[in-house]
Design goal:
about 20% helix, about 200 residues, single chain, 3-stranded antiparallel sheet, alpha+beta, 5-stranded antiparallel sheet, about 30% strand, globular
């Protein structure tokens, strides 16, 4: 299946504005992934396990207009059972005659992934090497300066081998239900830990 771009719409809960770059609200990467997977799920049977690969975040989708910008999704299916999903928007400079298409996020969805066995607890609970505790306040003041809804790392330890974080959800909780990828707060916080 090679679908033409389909217009998609999404509501903007007030907490979306807490995710911003240089004071301008942008669609969180995890929210863009959710939009694409939800849209793609309309084109093929859903699976209890979704494997996302080849994820690219090319351009911010700014959300500082009264209505979200016109946004489109294109789903391309391959013979191997995977689906490529691309989130785009259209942009026209004032006074310009040409409309540009901006690619914001693209990813590959594999719905045939067998169930994954979690790694042993001792593997994920013990980082080797010297551990450094990172001051959470510094993360959200200096490194990832988002508003309260996206300040979800509660504790962070890093080492040359990786990071271990305790994360939580903001209060009030995200009111949305039936999200394809579950609450985006955990993955968003994992991205923040990776940035640190």
């Amino acid at each position: 299946m090679n679908a033409d771009p389909t217009a998609i719409s999404f509501a903007l809960p007030p907490f979306f504005k807490d995710h911003h770059v240089q004071g301008r609200p942008v669609l969180a990467a995890v929210e863009a992934m959710e939009l694409l997977v939800a849209h793609a799920g309309r084109h093929f049977s859903a699976s209890t396990v979704i494997n996302l690969t080849n994820i690219r975040f090319d351009k911010f989708l700014f959300l500082d207009t009264p209505e979200p910008p016109p946004t489109f999704a294109r789903i391309t299916s391959s013979n191997d059972g995977t689906h490529r999903a691309v989130l785009t928007s259209r942009f026209k400079r004032p006074g310009a005659a040409i409309t540009r298409t901006l690619t914001h996020v693209s990813l590959t969805i594999d719905q045939e992934l067998p169930p994954i066995d979690p790694p042993p607890v001792d593997t994920i609970a013990c980082l080797t090497g010297r551990l450094t505790r990172v001051d959470v306040d510094r993360i959200y003041q200096d490194m990832v300066p988002f508003g309260p809804a996206y300040r979800n790392i509660r504790r962070l330890l890093i080492s040359p081998d990786g990071a271990m974080a305790r994360v939580g959800s903001p209060d009030p909780l995200d009111p949305r239900s039936a999200l394809c990828l579950g609450s985006g707060y955990v993955l968003d916080a994992a991205f923040h830990a990776a940035c640190v």
